[in-house]
Amino acid sequence: MAADKALTADRRPALLENLTLWQRVYEYLREEIISERLQPGTELQEVALSEELGVSRGPIREAIGRLAAEGLVTVRPRRGALVRSLSKDEFLELYQVREALEMMAVRLAVPKLQAGDLGELEELIGIMGRHAERGEVAEFFEANVAFHARLFEASGNERLQELYGQLVGQMGRYRMRSLTLRGNLQRSVAEHSAILRAAKHGDADRAAHLMSEHIRVPQRRLQALTDDELAAAEAGAPGVPA
Fold it and tell me: Which class is 88-234 in CATH?
């Protein structure tokens, strides 16, 4: 990381001002990892980070410990920490856990959805559709993430939301894998629309089943690929987020 990425007042979001020092370091490093500015395999050395971020080694160590607990870094005794890289099998396991969490969120959310919630979800699908027509993958991805996050929020289960947030943190930096595995944008829009139709009818089981099928699309493709084929796919054609 360059020195100009330090936690200076003109760089860090206002939200971080209310956090403790180690939390500010944690949020900063987490964003660097998820955005892939820190690539898998990058070393996180306490001394270097302390100098670059202008903080003591204590907050650095605590932040790295939190990142390790989330599975974003690997701590090596007496050798520092590394940004983690996920294997095909590990990525598949995350998809399987995500499927279970999303199905539970849908089942909890559907009976609680109000007209305003349904309208917001429909608006997000409309946004996805417009970005799909224009081939705007990054923008589509953001609307897609918001759709799924809204269902978790509507579930009313804070612990479920917390678990999902941790999962998204681990999977989020592998957007290209998800994009490559998904298929095409229009199919994803159609799948989201089907989930919402079931939700509007109050059919939680149907909506959960459709969500499961939606998330299994990249799972099935992932299972069929070797690690080398997946790496080649990541470097190749664009796809669509789950």
Answer: mainly alpha
